[in-house]
């Protein structure tokens, strides 16, 4: 609901996977990722922010491969909320 430390979708370790199940098929045009800004970080850095990530479209949550919609890099020096257009 906000961008304060601890109110997040945290992943353990350096890799993670997330599946979002929707009620109907969509054709996305972009994705957004938000992380707290450095000014709100207790340590003054945001090394926990995502860096390289890929987005896949799946027909169902059990599908192994999926369709690659894009590979992106979150800019830790940029704005906290960043938008990434679908590349495919």
Automatic annotation (TrEMBL):
InterPro entries: SUN1-5 (IPR045119), SUN_dom (IPR012919)
GO CC field: meiotic nuclear membrane microtubule tethering complex; nuclear inner membrane
Subcellular location: Nucleus inner membrane
Keywords: Membrane, Transmembrane, Transmembrane helix
One Gene Ontology molecular-function label: protein-membrane adaptor activity
Chief place of localization: nucleus
First and last residue of the signal peptide: none
Entry's transmembrane regions: none
All copies of domain SUN, residue ranges: 1-88
Gene3D superfamilies in UniProt: Galactose-binding domain-like (2.60.120.260)
Protein name per its UniProtKB record: SUN1 protein
Organism: Herpetotheres cachinnans
């Amino acid at each position: 609901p906000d961008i304060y430390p601890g109110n997040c979708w945290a992943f353990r370790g350096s890799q993670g996977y997330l599946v979002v199940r929707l009620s109907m098929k969509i054709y996305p045009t972009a994705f957004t990722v938000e992380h707290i800004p450095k000014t709100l970080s207790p340590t003054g850095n945001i090394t926990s922010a995502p860096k390289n990530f890929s987005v896949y479209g799946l027909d169902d949550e059990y599908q192994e491969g999926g369709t690659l919609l894009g590979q992106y890099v979150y800019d830790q020096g940029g704005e906290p909320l960043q938008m990434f257009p679908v590349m495919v």
